[in-house]
Task: inverse folding
């Protein structure tokens, strides 16, 4: 049985060529030219096309509260877990108020 050894091209190898930054790039021969200045960002996702979450609303509120606290510069400590659990059990309107207060 023959053994095949594959190696990646070395940068100093004259056969290995990177694309020059000042030369336009083509997608296909005769196709449109794109350069480094072109940007092809995707549009933002449509919330209506999202899949329903398999998480319980209480779990979603807990995750959201942890994220809001962290974004506000308040890193929850391990001892805060019970308090966050109890806050997550409160109605959604209370959760909205907490989130609003933390994100101002």
Result:
């Amino acid at each position: 049985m023959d053994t095949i050894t594959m190696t990646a091209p070395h940068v100093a190898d004259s056969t290995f060529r990177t694309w020059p930054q000042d030369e336009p790039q083509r997608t296909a021969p005769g196709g449109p030219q794109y350069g480094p200045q072109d940007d092809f960002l995707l549009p933002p996702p449509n919330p209506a096309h999202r899949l329903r979450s398999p998480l319980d609303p209480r779990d979603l509120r807990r995750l959201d509260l942890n994220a809001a606290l962290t974004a506000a510069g308040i890193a929850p400590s391990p001892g805060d877990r019970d308090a966050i659990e109890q806050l997550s059990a409160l109605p959604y309107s209370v959760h909205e108020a907490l989130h609003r207060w933390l994100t101002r």
Observations:
- The longest strand covers residues 25-26.
- The helical segments are 57-71, 81-88, 92-103.
- The chain has a mean pLDDT of 75.
